[in-house]
Amino acid sequence: MRLVAVREDPLEPGEVVAAVSDAAAGGLAVFVGTVRDHDGGQDVQRLEYSAHPTAEARLAEVAAEVAEEFDVVAVAATHRVGVLEIGDVAVVSAVSAAHRDTAFAASRALIDRLKARVPIWKHQVFADGTDEWVDSP
C-alpha cells in the first residue's frame, strides 16, 4: 500500500498512478469515479460526501487486505469529501501487479470493498430541490 487518503482537495488520478507504478508491474488497473449528472431517473445537481473520522484508517485496512489477498506489487486509493460538482473526481483507486489479470481482479476487489466498507456517505442533491442519502446507515 503506497497511498491512501480521504481529503477535501481535488483528486489527481496521476498521483495514484504514480504511487503504484513500479518496474515489477506488468499491469496497472485504475478506476476513476466521477460525479454524473443523473441517478435513478433524476437530474443530479451536486453530491456532498462526508466521512466518519475512521474512514482513512478503514480505507487503509481494505487496501492492505487486497494487497495481501492478491499477488500485487502496489495498491493505492483516494476518496474525496465535501461538495462535488458534476464531472468532479470522487474516487481514484489503482493496483499494479506482475500480470494484467491480477491487476484487474485486485482493482475490482479494491473499489468494491471500499464502497461497501469504508464509512463515506453520499448525499445527492437533485435539480428539482429534493435530495437523498445513498447507502447510509
Automatic annotation (TrEMBL):
GO terms for biological process: Mo-molybdopterin cofactor biosynthetic process. The keyword Lyase does not apply. SUPFAM superfamilies: Molybdopterin synthase subunit MoaE. It is an enzyme of class 2 (transferase). Pathway: Cofactor biosynthesis; molybdopterin biosynthesis. Keywords: Molybdenum cofactor biosynthesis, Transferase. Its EC number is 2.8.1.12. It catalyses: 2 [molybdopterin-synthase sulfur-carrier protein]-C-terminal-Gly-aminoethanethioate + cyclic pyranopterin phosphate + H2O = molybdopterin + 2 [molybdopterin-synthase sulfur-carrier protein]-C-terminal Gly-Gly + 2 H(+). Heterotetramer of 2 MoaD subunits and 2 MoaE subunits. Also stable as homodimer. The enzyme changes between these two forms during catalysis. Converts molybdopterin precursor Z into molybdopterin. This requires the incorporation of two sulfur atoms into precursor Z to generate a dithiolene group. The sulfur is provided by MoaD. PANTHER family: MOLYBDOPTERIN SYNTHASE RELATED (PTHR23404). Belongs to the MoaE family. This is Molybdopterin synthase catalytic subunit 1.
